[in-house]
Amino acid sequence: MKTAALIPARYASTRLPAKLIQDLGGISVIQRTYVSSVATGVFDEVWVVTDHKEIEKQILDLGGNVFMSKKAHQSGSDRIAEALEAVDADLIVNVQGDEPFQDPKSLQDLVSVFDRPKVKMASLMCRISEDEAYNPNTVKVVLDEKKNAIYFSRSPIPFNRERTEDIFYWKHVGVYAYMRELLLEFTSWPKGRLEQIEMLEQLRLVERGVKIQMVETEHQAIAIDTKEDLDRARNFLRSIL
Fold first, then answer.
1. How far apart are CA 241 and CA 158, in angstroms?
2. The 3-state secondary structure of 102-128, one letter per residue
3. How confident is the model over 197-224, as pLDDT tens digits?
4. Separation between Cα atoms, residue 73 and residue 19, nearest integer Å
5. Which SUPFAM superfamilies does the entry link to (predicted)?
6. Rounded CA separation 27/46 (Å)
7. 151-158 contacts: CB < 8 A, separation 24 or more?
């Protein structure tokens, strides 16, 4: 089974303008995401899918693969689905363009669950505290006994009615892996009601009854959304060089 990482890289960003081309240790954020994805050794191919010539140039300067997409896409999943016309792979992993430090073990664990014939989609999760669970920007997931997602929410789920002290929560880490056919089918569906309420695209799949196999990781990714995030990434990079 051929595996490809596709990195959606939209140029426009609200809280940190042009964040993907900001300098991060001598190369840009998107270049570092590309390089670290390749370095994991998990993928047969790595592609950046972008709507902007500067990002295209930066990846080509590295000798990388780039697909130029339309500018009008509602989600990263829609953007990478368009790129499948150029990418010949069976398993597609959606790697976030603003997460420059990819973890080989997490990605290998994610890809490995597709050895099971019934798995068509998977994603990552990590444990968080109850305090973190009350942050609506942190997406939580609850599971069935086989670690398939039952529901995703910005609310703290499950609700700790009895104030049990040893409860923990699962945070959804937004790295998705899809079998090619499911990704193409998913992005052709209209938005579901729950998706529109919570503004979480994965709920479109839950509403349709698609099983999403969740995989635990201990890796805490640095996602760059603000200037403070960028400073934190630069400090982290200095600490490991």
1. 40
2. CCHHHHHHHHHHHHCCCCCEEEEEEEE
3. 999 999 999 999 999 999 999 998 899 9
4. 18
5. Nucleotide-diphospho-sugar transferases (SSF53448)
6. 18
7. 151/203, 151/206, 152/198, 152/200, 152/202, 152/203, 152/206, 153/198, 153/200, 154/198, 154/199, 154/200, 156/130, 157/133
